[in-house]
Amino acid sequence: YDEPAFCTAACPLKLDGRAFVGKMQAGDFTAARAVLERIAPFPIILAGGCESPCSAACRLSEVGEGIDMSALERAAMKYGTPKGGRGMFKIKKSKKAAIIGADLFSLALAGELAAKSYPVTFFVKEEDAAVLMVHCAPFLDKEALKAETDRLCGMDIDLKFGSTLDKELYRQAKETYDI
Question: How far is CA 12 from CA 15, 24, 90, 143, in A?
Fold first, then answer.
């Protein structure tokens, strides 16, 4: 009884599938959206790109068609109300992080570290946040791309556009940043 549900165990982000589906079943899209927002810094990207390994692990798939979690995630993000405000007062960590490179993993890492109050500088070759978001999540539609671009711009991340990985940037990062 102490083990997680099959769906939760199969999810790389450990989404509590039962709680999420329960909120969706109750019609509480906002609470379901909050579940996604707690586990991912860019929940619209999560909903748009999720391959739903939990659906195959779902016990319901043994007796018929399992739950289409990615469709539920997209519905929660579309119809749920985003959480407002910035949360509780957070004290900045003393260690500074530099992230170099623009891919989905780097983007998620920047979001996670910023959420944990680390001062983050994100060095990317793209010329602006919209192009960065298209590069990282090309599977999103225009509306979702705009929403996630706005989310990125609202985070406490110092974005350095037009950066290229070279010896000088590496030296600067090594001398200036702890992580």
Answer: 8, 21, 27, 26
Over range 159-177, report the average pLDDT.
91
Predicted TM-score (pTM) of this structure: 0.80
List 98's β-bridge partners, or say none. Answer: 121
* Tokens coding 151: 């989310």
- Please, are residues 132 and 126 in contact by the beta-carbon 8 Å criterion? yes
- Alpha helices, H only, the chain: 6-10, 17-25, 29-39, 43-49, 53-57, 69-79, 104-115, 129-136, 142-154, 167-176
**Please, which pLDDT band fits residue 179 given cuts at 50, 70 and 90?**
confident
DSSP state of 59: G
Sequence-separated (6 or more) residues with CB below 8 Å from residue 148: 42, 44, 45, 133, 137, 140
Residues 6+ apart with CB under 8 A from 95: 118, 178, 179
For residue 34, which of 16, 12, 57 has the smallest C-alpha distance? Answer: 16
